[in-house]
């Protein structure tokens, strides 16, 4: 392997990025770099290594990427490692800085809204320490089936109202402690992405664990996440945690779709007036004032009935309570197709 000076290697990486910036999916104004389809660009000597994360409908871009990289006269070897979840067009991650902000409820509501718009949707519950999707769907006691495909065992996702779901909550007994070590956790999450018979999906929504850690890093490094939707609540501590989470996503070069501010206000049950500043809302726009450049796409008021365990399940579904807000979120997601 040829050894080259560090400044020359850096110059070659810039050349590679420039050539890739001219590749755009058909009908798109964005290039493969800004869409985060090409990541982990490395130039070692005269060799180029990249990873190509793409949706099932973007496979035609692979030869264009290889051709672009091979066009550099100094390139001796070009290695493109393609990563795609079979059958899945767009993978979206829903993240938060801390737990208890309604991330899972937002994920389920967004999935159902996209479904109501005519799209096929799946949910991967990657919150391995506190899986709640299966609880919201009443599927904690459902056993997960497996099938043998291409000489390896694959999970069959649960299908509820044509929504495909995979969650660690379906693999554990009720009340079981979920204490996963790093290597086991990484292997499990990879299986949940690539060893699940998802079929053909327009969208796969990944419900991430809150904060930053092994699970989030594994998803960001190993999955073709097209964009990240953040969920937070008003308040200084929530925004501080969210800033750290945003910094991690920025480090991996992932586009951030925007944020959802949950529990933004509440209507007084007595007089009907709107009560804001419940959670120190003066800090709501902190993300934008510190230069994080993350748009708040929608604000969801508190609906007291949806917090009650005695409520009817249909009433507690956020997409029915906040229909217009979730249609707005869905349109942002549909723009990624």
Would you kindly provide a written description of the structure presented here, covering whatever features stand out?
The protein has 337 residues and is an alpha/beta fold. The protein folds into 2 domains: 6-83, Fe-S cluster assembly (FSCA) (GMP Synthetase, Chain A, domain 3); 88-334, 3-Layer(aba) Sandwich (Rossmann fold), CATH 3.40.50.300. It contains 11 helices and 14 strands. The protein has helices spanning 6-20, 61-70, 103-116, 133-136, 182-194, 214-222, 236-251, 286-289, 313-316, 318-321, 323-334; strands at residues 38-44, 47-53, 77-83, 88-96, 121-125, 145-149, 152-156, 158-160, 163-167, 201-207, 225-232, 256-267, 274-275, 296-302. The strands form 3 sheets. Strands 4, 5, 8, 9, 10, 11, 12, 13 and 14 form a 9-stranded mixed beta sheet that branches. Strands 1-2-3 form a 3-stranded mixed beta sheet. The longest helix has 16 residues, at 236-251. It is globular.
